[in-house]
Amino acid sequence: MTTNYSKAVAAEAVGTAFLLAAVVGSGIMAERLAGGNVAIALLANTMATGAALLCLILALGRISGAHFNPVVTLAQGWSEGTTPARTAGYIAAQVIGALAGVAVAHLMFEQQSLFLASTHVRSGAAQALSEFVATFGLLLVIGGTGKTSPQFTPFAVASYITAAYWFTASTSFANPAVTVARSLTDTFSGIRPVDVPVFVLAQLAGGLAGAWTARWLNR
Fold first, then answer.
1. 175 close to 68: Cβ distance less than 8 angstroms
2. Does the predicted model carry a pTM greater than 0.90?
């Protein structure tokens, strides 16, 4: 493993960990302070997530590409011909980082355990469609801005995720590593483990369709 690749894998793990700490931690804080107002809690969770995502992409993008998302890694691997081993290394780092981020958030907010299976129901066709749409749009934004104005990609991605929190019924997970990790927090941002497979399948399908569409449109 080369030094540059080692740093890239580390950046993916650290970035994804901070992303999950932001998602879960801000969800806990928002729920505590919102006084039962779910809209206010979601707004706070959205703003913190979008802001953290922008900062992380800007800070780590030059090192690893700042994927923080297995679907993005798979799409990049497809378009750039990345070896399966390198792709697998990125994805493993993202999953490990995501789990670490949940654990850190739980520690910061004195939750009863590092991991706790969520009871937050997110099931049904509307939720699956939402994840397809959210991930399709994410890959379309990445593919489009990456081709025409890559300097604006971090801002476009963070803005899109912020918006997609509100225009999708699922609040736009759009990320398999995030989805798996959020199944292990029984807090505001959680998802039942039983609902994870449908979310991940919808994300993979939406990501593939979005990446293909972006590539076709920008040829």
1. yes
2. yes
